[in-house]
Design goal:
It is a single chain. The chain is mostly helical. The protein has four helices and three strands; from the N terminus they run αααββαβ. It starts with a helix and ends in an 11-residue tail after the last strand. The chain folds into two domains: about 170 residues, Helix Hairpins; about 70 residues, no CATH class. About 75% of the residues lie in helices and about 5% in strands. Bound molecules: zinc ion. Zinc ion binds next to loops.
Length: about 240
């Protein structure tokens, strides 16, 4: 049993490496996803902003066109005045022209306001686009690094998995299954040593009778507290009892 458990301990070392590296990979992939999401959000924000700006610009164009049409009408009415002799008609026409002028000055103010708004939209848009450009440039560099890291992890995990398979062939199938169950339930630590009568998995005392059995190593001994597989390292002083 001792040899089997020692092989199991080396299998655990490999499994812990795979587990740790896989954990790092998950974190790195999450980082990529988060950054891509951030960039997508910024792009959507810019698109929305551009649509708002375009709506303002359309309003301005419509008002400018209306202004042109109204000015044309006023000019036509002024020309008609030259041909009219009746004073009342003239006064009526003048009133119409004044009305148009009043409306136009209001329109002009609105156009100026819209132009100013468009201006501030444009400068804000430029700032947003610049921010996005910098974010993307910085990210492209970082993304390359992260992807290389992920690729490195994948290679290391593939190597470790091959090693694990080789180690596993030397182990009893039932023992591996039992070990795997404990490994997944006990936070990636299934085989632990006992040092100074203390389980190194849960740091609880091991009863002396059990300790003797661990040293004999004739059968699989589990910690009474954490149910991990216990073994003693050949280097520990108590080994002289063997
Ligand atoms: Zn324990």
């Amino acid at each position: 049993m001792r040899e089997q458990i020692e092989i199991l301990a080396s299998l655990q070392n490999v499994d812990r490496e795979i587990r740790e590296k896989s954990g790092v990979k998950v974190v790195l992939l999450a980082e990529i996803q988060k950054k891509e999401e951030e960039i997508r959000t910024k792009c959507a924000d810019i698109a929305l902003f551009r649509a708002e700006w375009s709506e303002k610009d359309k309003q301005r164009q419509e008002k400018e066109q209306l202004l042109q049409e109204e000015s044309k009408k006023a000019t036509e009415k002024r020309m008609r005045m030259n041909r009219i002799k009746n004073i009342k008609e003239l006064q009526a026409l003048q009133r119409e022209i004044d009305q148009i002028k009043l409306g136009n000055s209001q329109l002009e103010e609105e156009v100026i306001k819209l132009l100013e708004e468009a201006e501030s939209y444009a400068s804000a848009l430029r700032a947003k686009e610049e921010e996005l450009r910098q974010l993307e440039a910085a990210w492209r560099e970082k993304q390359g690094e992260i992807e290389a890291q992920v690729a490195g992890i994948e290679r290391a995990v593939a190597e470790a998995s091959a090693l694990r398979q080789a180690i596993a062939t030397r182990l009893n199938r039932e023992l591996i299954e039992r070990y795997e169950l404990i490994f997944s339930r006990r936070g990636g630590m299934a085989v632990v040593t006992v040092s100074d009568g203390i389980c190194q998995g849960c740091y609880m005392n091991i009863p002396p009778q059990l300790w003797n059995e661990i040293i004999k190593s004739e059968k699989l001994i589990l910690c009474p507290s954490c149910h991990r597989i216990l073994y003693s390292k050949p280097t520990v002083p108590n080994d002289k009892q063997l």
